[in-house]
Design goal:
This protein is mainly beta. The radius of gyration is 20 Å and the shape is elongated. The protein is 7% helix and 40% strand. The protein has 2 domains: 14-53, no CATH class; 55-116, no CATH class. Strand 4 and strand 5 (88-99) form a beta hairpin. The longest helix has 8 residues, at 45-52.
Length: 121
């Protein structure tokens, strides 16, 4: 009697990525609208229903002002993603820039969640 080989694990259809043809950002393969440039990528009814189920799970708005005394400052916008055990699974520099005294820059961080199937709520 021969031993059975272990089953081959199939790649999950969730979290697959591709490159947006418009802005070249890495996006989810399932996205029908690019979250970066907001161009439409798919025009099918299933994608439209999935997009309708998308919700914003987290949104933070903030503003920074130039420092006093009158000294220009530089800034880096960094996003870190951690799993349920607190381990960092991703870290990305989103943008960098400079801000002059008396200048003000606004920032918004949003995390959008889309179900992978229409049965999920």
């Amino acid at each position: 009697m021969s031993a059975r080989p272990p089953p081959i694990a199939r790649a999950s259809p969730t979290a697959r990525t591709r490159v947006c043809p418009h802005c070249k950002s890495t996006i989810l393969e399932s996205a029908n609208v690019c979250p970066g440039c907001r161009h439409h990528l798919k025009f099918d009814s299933v994608a439209a229903r999935r997009q309708a189920e998308t919700r914003t799970a987290l949104r933070i708005d903030g503003t920074i002002k130039g420092a006093s005394p009158a000294v220009p400052c530089e800034y880096s916008v960094v996003i870190a993603i951690r799993d349920s055990e607190g381990r960092e699974v991703g870290r990305h520099v989103v943008g960098v820039g400079a801000i002059r005294p008396a200048e003000e820059h606004g920032f918004t961080l949003a995390v959008e969640v889309t179900p992978t199937s229409l049965e999920w709520k």
